[in-house]
Amino acid sequence: MKIVIPGGTGQVGTVLNRALSAAGHEVTVLSRQPARPGEIPWDGKTVGPWAEVIDGSDVVVNLAGRSVSCRYTAPHLQAMMDSRVRSTRAVGEAIAAAAHPPRVWLQMSTATIYAHRFDAPNDERTGVIGGAEPGVPGYWAYSVDIAKAWEREQANADTPHTRKVALRSAMVMSPDRGGVFDVLLRLARLGLGGPVAGGAQYVSWIHDRDFARAVQFLAARDDIAGPVNLAAPGPLPHRMFMHALRTAQGVPVGLPATKGMAELGAFVLRSDTELLLKSRRVIPGRLLEAGFDFRYPQWPAAAGDLVGRVRSRHRRRRIGPAEPSRADRTPAMP
Predict the structure, then answer these.
(1) Closest CA to 83 of 31, 44, 111, 38
(2) Inter-residue contact 234 to 302 (CB < 8 Å)
(3) Residue 321: which pLDDT band, with cuts at 50, 70 and 90?
(4) Element (H, E) at 41
(5) Are 126 and 64 contacting, i.e. CB atoms less than 8 angstroms apart?
């Protein structure tokens, strides 16, 4: 299949591009700073020559949007809103104008759209949309507003011949450098991977390979449209999440952190405590109903796999490239 990934140069895009390319698909990435084969330029807000690759493609997976790994200041929150809404609008306009539009448009969204809660999980049918929870910082509601606007822009796009799916994704856990798992693993190694603010808040997540498999599953299923939760069926409290990660890494102790300590750490890392403190208890109702088989439904096994892949990468770096065998060194006979 011909697959276009706007905004596909980040961590999630790298995961998806790698999996789709390995499966034999022809992948084109739209990037503001194209640097590799298969990447073409776009500005992320207006239709341009890049729209030619949309016309005749089979699947569009739009991942574009400013990173949430930043301080949630008013300018940064506005930049998150603008980058998501404008890029989604541009993709919708390109699909609407295509002579041969893609049959499916998978649009990135976020599990942050759901309410901060502990009492019950959020699925697509019964989940509570956030923004009005008592006792949480007021600016958390703006994150929900961003998610709503993101999904609304896709829903309103005039693309009658293209099925639309909103991917309400939890954190994608990948062994790649710079991702959320990389940060959490470094904290665990330093002995700082204990519970934050008591650790009762739920963590929703999805293993990188399950994420890529779920995207391919949704692209192939003609009967699924609208919001779909991309999250493993086993969300768990933060204290249990970090304990499983420390166990996988072989770190016996993780120092706990108070809310104030988390604020200080987030300031140093130029991030925001919402990413740590909001209870995201999300389950993949529609994927499970459709028969999707998670390879990593529970976090302890997923953490073990991810830690193992990180260690394998480190071993390869230490050892260097393998010595070619005699067969590799000897030219083949004509």
Answers:
(1) 44
(2) no
(3) low
(4) strand 39-41
(5) no
* C-alpha–C-alpha distance, residues 69 and 85, integer Å: 18
Contacts of 114 (CB under 8 A, 6+ apart): 122, 127, 128, 129, 130, 168, 280, 281, 282
Q: What does each C-alpha distance from 157 to 43, 85, 150, 169 come to in angstroms?
A: 19, 11, 11, 21
What 304-313 contacts at long range (C-beta under 8 Å, 24+ apart), as own/partner pairs, is: 304/248, 305/207, 306/173, 306/174, 306/175, 306/181, 306/185, 306/207, 306/208, 306/248, 307/185, 307/245, 307/248, 307/249, 309/175, 310/175, 310/185, 313/175
Tokens matching residue 181 = 């798992």
Distance CA 276, CA 274 (A): 5
| Residue 262: predicted pLDDT | 78
Q: Are 318 and 264 in contact (CB under 8 A)?
A: no
234: nearest Cα among 183, 147, 170: 170
DSSP secondary structure letter of residue 269? T
CA 203, CA 280: separation in Å to the nearest integer? Answer: 6
Q: 26-53, pLDDT tens digit by residue? A: 999 999 999 999 999 999 999 999 999 9
Phi, psi of 249 (to 5 degrees): -85, -15
Q: In terms of C-beta density within 10 A (0-12 exposed, 13-18 middle, 19 or more buried), how is residue 332 classed?
A: exposed
C-alpha 120 chain-centroid distance: 23
SS (H, E, C) 45-73: CCCCCCHHHHCCCCEEEECCCCCCCCCCC
Q: How far is CA 13 from CA 106, 186, 215, 316, in A?
A: 13, 22, 12, 24
**Cα 24 to the center of its chain, rounded Å:** 22
pLDDT tens digits for range 220-231: 999 999 999 999
- Cα 131 from Cα 114, distance rounded (Å): 8
Give the separation between CA 246 and CA 99, rounded to whole angstroms.
Answer: 52
Buried b (16+ CB within 10 A) or exposed e, 237-254: bbbbbbbbbbebbebeeb
SS3 142: helix
